Amino acid sequence: MLYSDRAISPFETSSPQCNRLLIFFILGGSVFTLAVLSFLLPVIFAILPSFSNRFEVLGNFGKSQSDFGRVAMITGFTVTQAFFSAILAVIIGFGAAFFCALREFKGRNFLLSLSAIPLSVPPLIIAIAYILFFGKQGVLNSILNWAFNGNININFLYSVLGIIIIQAFYNFPIAMQAITQVWQRLDEELEEVAALMGAKPRRIFRQIILPELWNPILSSFLIIFLYCFFSFMIILMFGGMDFSTLEVELYVAGRTTLDISYAGKIALIETAIAASLTIGYIFSRKQSTENVLDLKRQRIRKKIINKKENLIFIILMSIIILFLLAPLFSIFIHSFIKTGYTQGGNTFISLAPWKKILQTASTWEAAFNTVWIGITTSILSIMASLFFLYLNFTTSLKTGITENKFSSFIDSVLKFLPYAPLMISSVVLGFGFKIFMPRGSIVILILAQLARTWVFAYAQIQTSFAQIPKDILQAAVLFSSGKRDAFMRVVLPLIKPGIKTAFAFCFAISAGDASIPLLLNIPKFKNLSLQIFRLSGSYRFTESSVIAIILAVITGLVFFILQRKKETI
Does the pLDDT at position 83 exceed 90? Predict the structure, then answer.
């Protein structure tokens, strides 16, 4: 038998390894329990008002404004905009995945690196980028006004089309990455055999390639749909009074009008829809993972083969540059603009906006809060995710003992738990915490962020863990005093790259979060994301651009420091 079957105490190992395991077990278990409770309790308190009127003491005493027609209309719009945003994102991602998986070209690695944008770049920065580039006084319209004497203007931002375009280009890297990972490992032999038998390329694609790519397409569509379904900042800034989603409606009811019962109903509807989609995502991801396990090779990438393909590539890259990279770059340009884009021939580039922001005490206070809260949230998320990985590791390696129903149930719970936070938006969490503890505080903010970020940390760490060959894990258990000892001595050192990446992503998510602080309404609290939101709400886009650059530099510096030394298994 390969694994040790003897009964092993959780701390049965030599000192000081015993002390390390004891500390890990106590601290990691406590933080993991805290993370789970920080998710469950606010969800319960967010939904509870929909079943009781006792919470109306927190808000108005009049009749709740809940109306079936209005809720149905808002739900319909929320689902519709999320659906078409996800469809467009998958189409763009599919096109980009074709070239990333099958073709060799300059900038391929950079294009794949865009998959970090949905996690590392806050939606608020994306929204400001689009305003600065596509807005009425934006870069593109200024160029068009200069070139065509004001006869051509681009005005699509504050519309349903604008919302769909912004969300699609913000999230398409998710689909690109998921589809590329599978497509580049598909076996070419079946395609070659079909071609030799006279099948045309379109038929090969339709009957051989597309069925293999269906699972990553579906899973990426569902996760993008969920992100767009929970979209808050983009809808808040571009929807105006005409368009509202369940997230925005919940925010208005829970913080502005204080109609707690109505907010509870919105939270219940939103959570129910998201839960059904999350279950579909879990299933599609499981199927996709099972298919990937059989894909041993990576296809040899070829150069772009003909003029038609080259034309498609140029058009696709131009669209990505226009709708994603150019808006992001415009933030940097706009941070040096003193007033407007033209100054009657005089220079309009100035360091004055930077001097003004850097000389303001509130900026440094906001930056300090952003950094220490981000570091705290990231450390707690790493601790929770490592403990959860520890639970999975110690229960997944079979010892030959026949499983019973209880162990099967525990195994199912462990597999489901990382996906549970996908069912809940940050606004629902913030609203739930506001009901649970009406007076907001930084501690509550950290707990609310922990409830969401530990899952992203676990995903990155699990990716590193999955790269460890099974024979190494088996040997580690065989030559250690048990699975727990093997986890501390072998697994932890090997997953360091995943831990570093997880820390960086959690820090970026925490630093870019403005929705939870808005809901909690912490007295006299400032962070960089809130500063950006408040400045952009006052149409002070130059100053908000400066702070957005500062936020990007801080998060980018964290990624650079943690990733500068590559470690491979």
Answer: yes
Average pLDDT over the chain reads 83
For the chain, the maximum distance between any two Cα atoms, rounded to a whole number of angstroms, is 83
Reading the block at residue 192, the tokens are: 């070659």
Q: Is the distance from CB of 37 to CB of 437 less than 8 angstroms?
A: no
pLDDT digits (tens, 9 = 90+) for 353-367: 898 888 888 999 999
Does residue 199 lie within any of the structural domains? yes
Same domain (yes/no): 424, 487: yes
Do 438 and 467 fall into the same domain?
yes
Crossing angle for the helix pair 528-537 and 123-134, to the nearest 10 degrees: 30
Is the four-CA dihedral 4, 5, 6, 8 of positive or negative sign? positive
Using the 8-state DSSP alphabet, how is residue 1 labeled?
A: -
Query: Is residue 484 within 8 Å of 546, Cβ to Cβ?
Result: no
Q: What is the DSSP string of 165-193?
A: HHHHHHHHHHHHHHHHHHHTTS-SHHHHH
Task: Give 35's contacts (C-beta < 8 A, 6+ positions apart).
Answer: 380, 381, 384, 450, 451, 454
Per residue, what are the HEC states of 411-456? HHHHHHHHHHHHHCCHHHHHHHHHHHCCCCCHHHHHHHHHHHHHHH
- Say how far apart CA 134 and CA 330 lie, in whole Å: 10
Distance CA 454, CA 433 (A): 18
Lowest mean pLDDT among 22-26, 102-106, 217-221, 541-545: 22-26
pLDDT of residue 316 exceeding 50? yes
What is the distance of C-alpha 74 from the center of its chain?
24
Residue 300: exposure state from Cβ atoms within 10 A (0-12, 13-18, ≥19): exposed
Residue 258 lies in a domain: no
Residue 373 in any domain: the answer is: yes
- Asked if the bond preceding 16 is cis, omega within 30° of 0, the reply is yes
* Domain shared by 412 and 501, yes or no: yes
Residues 468 and 323 in one domain: no
Give the tens place of pLDDT for each residue, 395-452: 765 544 445 666 666 667 777 888 888 888 889 998 899 888 888 899 999 999 999 8
Q: Which CATH number do you get for residue 208?
A: 1.10.3720.10
Which has the higher per-residue pLDDT, 195 or 324?
Answer: 324
Give the end of a domain, one of 279, 314, 335: 335
Separation CA 36–CA 452 (nearest Å): 10
- My answer on whether 306 and 392 are in the same domain is no
| Global pTM value | 0.84
Distance CA 163, CA 233 (A): 11
Full domain range(s) for residue 226: 73-243+298-335
The answer to whether residues 299 and 102 touch, using CB atoms and an 8 Å cutoff, is: yes
Tokens of 148: 């065509």
